[in-house]
Amino acid sequence: MMGLEKRHSRWGLDRRGFLAVAGCLGLCGPTAMADEATTTPAPLVRADRIGPDGFCFGVVADVHHADKDTAGKRHYRSARNNLTRAVEDFNRCGVAFAVQLGDLIDGSDRAAVDVDEILSVFGGLDAPVVHVLGNHDFGGIRRASLIKRLGLKRGYYDFAAGAVHFIVLDSLDVSVCGGWDVRSD
Question: 64 lies in which domain range?
């Protein structure tokens, strides 16, 4: 346990942050050795920021932007300022792209407005954003509308960054909770 605590303070990652980064690396790990000729450049990456020694990308997860009172550790109204600081840091680091790992909003009757408000913050990023769908993103907004607002064709896709092939999964394609067709296409 002590080793995990040291890593937390040394790397600045909590469990959720570690899992987010590890998940991204795990998805691209098996294909990272792929022949560069087999990868396809995508507009999801700033190609000018990919060098022979690699690249850097930003990761944000669980933004939960909403016009709601704080509940537990979720500071909904602070989400916009927190994301703004992350975008500023990503710009300083010169990321090739940023990954948004889902739960951009915290679903409500004003979900469409919340999505548009928080996406405007990403407008300040001088690199593309890769979006992953999260379960909290669907409360109060239809699936097709959310996917369109995020600039996606569908909830799953892939892209290349140099010799690394990334696969974005849509783990919310099927719901076992029922009621899926009410809020989603």
Answer: 13-183
* Total number of domains constituting the chain: 1
- Tens digit of each residue's pLDDT (9 = 90 or more) over 34-81: 444 333 344 789 999 999 889 999 999 999 999 999 999 889 999 999
Has residue 86 been placed in a domain? yes
Indicate whether this model's pTM tops 0.85.
Answer: no
pLDDT 10s digits, 6-42? 344 344 556 566 555 555 554 444 444 344 433 334 4
- The token pair at 148 is 């369109």
Q: Which two tokens stand for residue 66?
A: 């909403």
CATH number at residue 47: 3.60.21.10
Of 169, 170, 150, 162, which Cα lies nearest the Cα of 42? Answer: 162
Residue closest to 86 by CA, chosen among 45, 115, 57: 57
